Amino acid sequence: MTTTAASTRPSMWAHQAWSLAGVVSLCIAATVGAVLLNTDGYHVASLFAIIAAAGASIGFFRRAWRIHFEVERELERMERKYGEVYGRAGISIWEEDWSAVGDAIARLRERGVTDIAAWFDVRPEEARALHAQVMITGVNRYTVGLMRAHSEAQLIGSLAQILPGSIASFGRWLAAFARGDTVYVGESVIQRCDGEPLDCFVTAALPKETGDFREIIVSVIEITGYKRDQARLAEARDEIARAQRIATVGALTASIAHEINSPLAAVSSNAAACRRWLDRPAPDLAEAKDAVGAVIADVERVCAVIERTRGYLQKADRAQERRDLKALIRESLELVDREADSHEVCISLVLADDLGEIVCDPVRLQQAFVNLMINAIQAMGASDRERRLMIAAARGEGLFRITVEDTGPGIAAEDLRRIFEPFYSTRTGGMGMGLSICRTAIEAHGGTLSARSTLGMGTCFEIRLPDPLT
Known about the structure:
Protein name: histidine kinase
Shape: elongated
Low-confidence stretches: 1-15
Largest sheet: 6 strands, antiparallel
Structural class: alpha+beta
CATH architecture of the largest domain: 2-Layer Sandwich
Number of helices: 14
Enzyme class: transferase
Radius of gyration: 46 Å
Mean pLDDT: 78
CATH topology of the largest domain: Heat Shock Protein 90
Order of helices and strands: HHEHHHEHEHHEEEHHEHEEHEEHHEE
Strand order of the largest sheet: 3-2-1-6-5-4
EC number: 2.7.13.3
Oligomer: single chain
Catalytic activity: ATP + protein L-histidine = ADP + protein N-phospho-L-histidine
Number of domains: 4
Helix content: 55-70%
CATH class of the largest domain: Alpha Beta
InterPro entries: HATPase_C_sf, HATPase_dom, His_kinase_dom, HisK_dim/P_dom, HisK_dim/P_sf, Sig_transdc_His_kin-like_C
């Protein structure tokens, strides 16, 4: 705005000079005419001279005033145009007078101070006093709305009074001035007129000469929503990373525990047997030797599990086997028979005749079957209704479908959405890892695990596994 007006003024002064020239011409003509009238024989010539001079003067005046009015109208139009652009811009624009800061920096340099930022760091009172001398001289209309002010006048005055929180970034401004930066860029938090904090991105072109500090244009872009979205995104990423770590550790731990539990139990049993053979009045060394051999074999099995775990961590290919799906399900049921009996649960098994073979990691897949069955049995532990565990498996459309359904109390909708999260359990004392491990195992085979439930009626888990043989 100021630059446009200033650039138009020289034309206006030139046209006013034309007007002055017209007046001078008229005066000269009148003087010449008067002299000529007092001279004998020149009356007619004098009259013509006066009329000519007067006509020329009037022409000069008319032209000067016409151009003057046209320039003024054009200037007003340009001021209105750029004033509208300035006011409607979707960026908050502040006009600020930092001349006190420019003068203070110049005085310090004259005294030989080179690190101006450090000078004010150890003199916070001087910095605050200087901050109070920075004046806001104008803002655009967008700023009035952004700051929730009643009018522009509410935002005019000392920077320390209008934006007291700006003292926190004042040191960065001083450092930028001291370094001779051409542009200031930074984030800041200011308070609206109603007290609400506002995250913003601030930029300004910084002057080189001390006299230019009187008018610094500062642009402010609100980034409150952006910062909030970034915080949510960071939180979501952290939560996802945490869940992945928990799921990985949980699945790995459960897998190790499952696989080494059996050989360790055998180690204990065979070691106890060896001791009994040796404790006899006549030690049976042959039997003791066989028991020690069995212990060694079981320890080797444990070592194989550890080696397999290392392969898992190193992304080694997993051993896939062709296994009869019916046999896997039946073996899983055998492992939970005792649990079912202790909870007085009846088991119903419906397996299609054409199930055939599945290519899988049998230990992981069986682990998922067992976990689902154990969960279903324990869910029916306190039920007064008939306790029935129904397992069905069918094959078709390139998929194996296995369902594990119970007649327990069911799962509430809000819990159903979270049951596969690590460490989330609906049972008191539950670790909340079983279903997470199940889903990890099923998804490792390219399948899916889902659940549906009705309160008071029971819950059904459905496993879908791809059938690569079709």
